[in-house]
Amino acid sequence: MPIELVIFDLDGTLVDSIGDIAGSVNYALGMIGKEALTLGEVRRLVGSGVEHLLLKAAGIDEHDLIQRDLLKGHFLLHYTEHLADQSRPYPNVINTLDALASMKKAVASNKLESLSKRLLDRLSMSGYFEAVYGYDSCGERKPSPVPILKLMETLGAGTTQTIIIGDSSLDIQAGHSAGIKAIAVSYGYRPIASLSDADYIVGDIGEILPIIKALP
After folding, report:
1. Predicted structure pTM score
2. What pLDDT is recorded for position 48?
3. CA torsion sign, 11 to 29 to 24 to 106?
């Protein structure tokens, strides 16, 4: 059956948000006396959720819950107000979403649902999506297939009618575990070598259009 639902990752796929994420990470680090990281260092840590990002950035043991929560509080305080200072859709994203007007579209992000929706709203992109999930939407985050399966259930699409687009192995794993095909974008935050398990790899998001059209 033809594709009816396209699920997108957010950061590194639809939106280049690394500048604002890095700014808030460094704000949080500064609040506890830690040195700032470079943009490249933050980029390598993005993808598995804010707790993982902050613990690695600060060099703090994962069992140090007090420091973890302190860092997270500082980060969220800053990021909530500055999440769209520098963030912008990647080239051709809006044109591609327009071209997919006849299909249902959703976002599955490993950031908070509220922040995902806030970012899309600030960038005037919310209207493109029937649903937006964050890591807190259904109790699990990618690479778990749970968010993908829940979106498919909510939006009434089967495995042969759904595809996921993302920039990391987490998106690919989540998609494959849910029984759907995965397209990886090579312009995001992960090295292309880490995307080898994807069914397709594209260098521009517009390249997903002929792939989706050709799928039976």
Report:
1. 0.95
2. 76
3. positive
